[in-house]
Amino acid sequence: MLKIGVTGGIGSGKTTVCKIFEVLDIPVYYADPRAKLLMIEDSKLVKEIKKLLGDKSYNKDKSLNRKYIANIIFNDKNKLNALNALVHPAVKNDFDKWCDSQNSPYVLKEAALLFENGSYKSLDKTILVSAPLELRVLRVMKRDNHTRESILSRVRNQMPESEKEKLANIIIKNDNDISLISQIIEIHRQLVKDSNAKIH
Ligand code: ATP
After folding, report:
1. At the topology level of CATH, where does 2-199 sit?
2. Which terminus of the chain has fewer CB atoms gathered within 10 Å of its CB, N or C?
3. How far is Cα 182 from Cα 163, in angstroms, rounded to an integer?
4. Is the minimum distance from the CB of 84 to ligand 1 under 6 angstroms?
5. pLDDT for 3-40, tens place per residue?
6. Closest ligand 1 atom to the C-alpha of 175?
7. What does the mean pLDDT of the chain come to?
């Protein structure tokens, strides 16, 4: 079974693209919400996070103390890297287990960060969802009610689009000019073919 990564900048349309693949019956692993769940439910990870950031990382009801954690990691890059180094292996492990229970020519792993943390290396191929910055900003402003400046500051923290384009195997343009659905159907056909070629 082929493992394909789907990534892209803020508001590029990663989730929208994955929902269309789901309509084609392709299983999708959404890494970011899954990571948030593992940070609460994976007891080994919980212990490691408490050791790294302190017991205050969790509220009394065992939920994440997001404000406390955000305050530490946004002010200390080493702590942010250390937290990522704990969460990423846990997500990789969870993804591998999830893959074992899937029965499909290929599966998708949707993640905001694939290139930045090297996790793309353990995947067969990567799809980059790409859209012009202005369109992405407008879409996120509409979706989340965030200000232009807060979105742009998150964009500035991400790997530049040109770097991601160099690393991606497949690019989906989500800019209103080319039909998203027809691009996805074409990629789906090719991936099913690739998967058959890998088996035989
Ligand atoms: P994030 O990085 O913030 O998680 P994302 O890359 O997953 O975002 P989506 O949530 O899929 O992006 O899309 C951002 C917003 O733009 C959503 O409200 C979505 O409905 C809208 N959108 C995405 N693609 C299109 C499109 N082709 N036409 C119209 N709206 C779109």
Report:
1. Rossmann fold (3.40.50)
2. C
3. 26
4. no
5. 999 999 999 999 999 999 999 999 999 999 999 999 99
6. 27
7. 94
